[in-house]
Amino acid sequence: MNDMTPTREQREAALEGMGCKRKRVEDIRFTQGKGQYVDDLKLPGMVFGDFVRSPYAHAKVTKIDATEALKLPGVIAVLTAEDLKGVNLAWMPTLAGDVQMVLADGKVLYQNQEVAFVVAENRYIADDAIQLVEVEYEELPVLVDPFQSMAPDAPVLRPDLEGKMEGAHGPRKHHNHIFTWEVGDKDETSKAFAEADVTVKELISYHRTHPSPLETCQCVASMDKVKGELTVWGTFQAPHVIRTVASLLSTIPEHKIHVIAPDIGGGFGNKVGAYPGYICSIVASIVTGVPVKWVEDRMENLSTTSFARDYHMTTEIAAKSDGTVTGLKVHVLADHGGFDACADPSKWPAGFFNIVTGSYDFPAAHLEVDGVYTNKAPGGVAYRCSFRVTEAAYCIERGMDILAQKLGMDPADLRMKNFIKPEQFPYQSALGWEYDSGDYHTAMQKAMDTIGYRELRAEQKAKQEAFKRGETREIMGIGVSFFTEIVGAGPSKNCDILGVAMFDSAEIRVHPTGSVISRMGTKSQGQGHETTWAQIIATEIGIPAADIMVEEGNTDTAPYGLGTYGSRSTPVAGAAIALAARKIRNKAQMIAAHMLEVSEYDLEWDVDGFQVKGNPQARKAMKEIAWAAYHAPPPGMEPGLEAVSYYDPPNMTYPFGAYFCVMDIDVDTGVAKTRRFYALDDCGTRINPMIIEGQVHGGLTEAFAIAMGQEIRYDETGNVMGASFMDFFIPTAVETPHWETDYTVTPSPHHPIGAKGVGESPNVGGVPAFSNAVNDAFQFLGSTHIQMPHDAWRIWQAARDLGAHG
Amino acid sequence: MIPGEFTYHRPSSVAEAVAILASHGDEARPLSGGHSLIPMMKLRMAAPEHLVDLGGIADLKGIAEDGDTITVGAMTTQHELIGSDLLGARLPIIRETSLLIADPQIRYLGTLGGNVANGDPGNDMPALMQCLNAAYVLTGPDGAREVAAREFYEAAYFTALAPDEILTAVKIPVPPTGHGYAYEKLKRKVGDYATAAAAVVLTLSGGSVSTCSVALTNVADTPLYAEEAGSILTGSTLDADTVKRAVAAAEAITDPASDGRGPAEYRIKMAGIMLERALARAADRARG
Amino acid sequence: MSDIEQIPVSLTVNGKKVQRFVEPRTLLIHFLREELDLTGPHIGCETSHCGACTVDMNGMSVKSCTVFAVQANGAELTTIEGMANPDGTLSALQEGFRQMHGLQCGFCTPGMITRAHTLLKENPNPTEDEIRMGISGNLCRCTGYQNIVKAIQYAAAKLNGTDIQEAAE
């Protein structure tokens, strides 16, 4: 060694491994407009498909006449359900065990439902042709209110299910009923309520909204009839699942289907499912023999592909007079729209809603969810959350505030009192989960201290007095939210999608010169996997992240994986990456031992290579070992240096956090202004703090939008209202609050690197923080619960109803 | 979202433009900034067979002062209105209002003429022009005529503009130096139309109101000139009681739709609140 | 096809002269993406709300989904593809977006950078509020804007030769 030898710290820094704020490799292309998104694709002979859609929410389709459309020059075909029946694709199975029409088969169940698929030379002609397709409808009574779905005289939405009183998730009790899902001990819970000093009960609704990524859903399907091979490029959060579904639905063997998800312009759950547009494009390409592109417009996106939420949660909490919670009872009425197309693991009709006991030590709990049909679009995706976790977090966090109010306790103190204690982990919840790790008290205390919680309460008190004296028309709310997420779906013992276990995978190949290509079963839509996956590998095998290329989204090259949603990438694929890397390191250790002529047990790992214990000068860097793996492997050892790992997680991970929102509300206009928002997240080991912060900012912004007005509304005849960015609330830089972020680190004990996942926490924890702030502001005027979303006019109405307008 | 087919015309003079419009009647539409018309065409809610692009007519640009009147060419963009020092000095309410229209990109192309001529009750400039008592110059085959902004609007998208006429300029009387003004707009977010908005221009003399003009945006199917509210306030010291009566008079003439911005009852009250706040700010400014 | 006559347009795009015949109803965004293969500007909302299609036309940021290609006849256009420095290195804004983590999925980024480019030309030293107002015609679903604001401040500082603050938190 000489003076030029880099120090250990320098070698570590050169890796840009875990824990460092590595700048993103993706940004080089994205900042130059060189991303490759689906609609950027141009193939020779490519044509364009577009939908004729129903103007009615519930109607019989009595006639479809495409004669005039087909006369238009440039129109190639108009597909209807009758055409799809020939290939047995007029209906498709959903992820939730239901079936869904691909094109209207005799009737429509929601406005803008797909009725016919026009294929034309370009999108201009396709749009012209749509205007020329004549469809005759016979209107039927419309069912919009889920509370009326199971009325005895409610219209029959699904004649196809007539007589089928056993659904995918057990018995159905009405023609518009989908399932009842029950968890927990009903008797124990009833006992807790009978013995309680205090109980509260409230209907807490979480309105229907939509993930609306900036890029809509789109695909290009290309059937090579000579080879019998189908290639589909698409906005797929889970490309391998799409391949398997495509193979199961078509007669094409899976190895002859190539699914490619190129760069994706945001997903947030919208791009998990399989939609009629994909099926129709594939069929159209098979029929025409040329590539077919389908691109949703924004109105189609907001009104047809995958709403989120729409849960109506009757929540009851039992407690002792000192605030100790003793029981939780929740009944959910879940509005699933016309088909049950929820994107949940197959055995979980209400996702992981049974995380609804939250961060609190409930000795008894009981949950029942009833899913029903209405004349609304199907979906029910996890919009930036693990399956139905944001609904659960909202339910319990609103419920705890309502309990605190009844008890006359401070909501932060009530939470502190009931938190699961650090020594209780791993913790068995009353609704069946095993929480891996947590230190809630520390996180909560840090958050309260940082934001100056007690001082804010004092300020609020003074403002309330001033308001009562008529000195101000502004009131102040402090929103407290402490959430526990459940992510990383999931263990094969309880998670699968259409029978495929929800493992994930990584393949790492170290080249002779010591650079790396790695491929995963996940698919980034902005999360920065190309950057962070390389950081994990860099730390594990000591090769600089800059020399590691990460590739996702091509099902021909990537190992099978279940994709990216539900904050599962880091908990599942992140573990697979670490374990694949460790396989490489283990082999490298044997090669290094051979090179250094020592036993492998005499070697120790040191940043970027192996060294002989007690003699650090005797070392082999990973780059040298890589060369040796191809040049002179030890006798009897296979050459090469690569590994694949498929990771079936032993448990979920349970990120948590403490969020505080300080809001000032103009009582006369209902306008709420967020003065401060503080978010403390604990996502276990932090791979890239810069990216974590970015994820938190983005998730909080979505939470802000959802809580404060982002809604898919229907009028009484089932017309979807405001399905454009004029009305659907996507905040601009002007409305969006400033975010303060913070963290604690409680690693997951069962994850190879201790990471838990973070992308969705801010949406899960953010919504209750905003809503609790609004609700908190009005408590002193006698309000118990104000439903979301908190648009200005709804806040104004609440203020008026409380007599605040004098 | 693709517009239907049309024939494109790009005249270089007003006369030429009018001649094209006259020869095609209802089948032709003038195109100025396009940010109202093109979205409607993409939704196929408007399908003109002939589109007459006014972008090539130099005469339609510019801001000029002549005595007590400022004349703004119809194709002057909101971005240009914001940047005009003349307007900034003499009619600062135009800058204040323009900054609340849509977003920066749209303001680069959106024009004053387009904003006032198409009759969309959501647009901000019509009420402002009513408040300022502006006149629109409408040029047709038989020459130009002037119509007061307060007389121009008939119903949503229905105005005094004939199909063969073009709104070529807006003439705005300049309020006296030291006047107070405010445009208060409540909206859900940048880019939205008003839930309700109020324009106020007033002058004070010795603490009481000498003149006061009030107009309201997006609380009926046309902009509303609130004449009675202005009369009630004139001569007052803007005491709470009088303001309350004026607000009630303004609210009484509103008839908003219930939509995503809120139910009618809310939007009516917001018209009143916006007026109250605009009055307070305008008075503050007039007091200096 | 239709009887509508195609119209010649000639314009300068990223410094290059371009001449084409277009159908009058061709939207500028489709002209750029499909005729000229400039796929940097994106289509997000189609109703002029999201700004993903923003390009610079004669020094103005415009939403090319709501402009007909014929309206751009004779114009000078700059798209994201024309933003890099002449030597091919990242411009101050492009670098700022990377340094300050001002993007995630990258879909809004071309429009956002193109808009910020014109904003800084008009106002080389904007306050945070001016930046937020200045990019209020561009929606981002991923970042929450905070780091976009920092990215633009980074670029402004670099272009002004003043101190660049520390990288994203």
TrEMBL record, chain A:
Keywords: Molybdenum, Oxidoreductase. The keyword Oxidoreductase applies. The keyword DNA-binding does not apply. It is an enzyme of class 1 (oxidoreductase). SMART domains: Ald_Xan_dh_C. One of its GO terms (molecular function) is carbon-monoxide oxygenase activity. It comes from the Bacteria. Residues 32-141 form the Aldehyde oxidase/xanthine dehydrogenase a/b hammerhead domain. Its EC number is 1.2.5.3. This is Aerobic carbon-monoxide dehydrogenase large subunit. It comes from Roseibium sediminicola.
From TrEMBL, chain B:
Residues 1-177 form the FAD-binding PCMH-type domain. InterPro entries: CO_DH_flav_C (IPR005107), CO_DH_flav_C_dom_sf (IPR036683), Diverse_Substr_Oxidored (IPR051312), FAD-bd_PCMH (IPR016166), FAD-bd_PCMH-like_sf (IPR036318), FAD-bd_PCMH_sub1 (IPR016167), FAD-bd_PCMH_sub2 (IPR016169), Mopterin_DH_FAD-bd (IPR002346). It comes from the Bacteria. Gene3D superfamilies: 3.30.465.10, CO dehydrogenase flavoprotein, C-terminal domain, Uridine Diphospho-n-acetylenolpyruvylglucosamine Reductase, domain 2. Keywords: FAD, Flavoprotein, Oxidoreductase. This is Xanthine dehydrogenase family protein subunit M. It comes from Roseibium sediminicola.
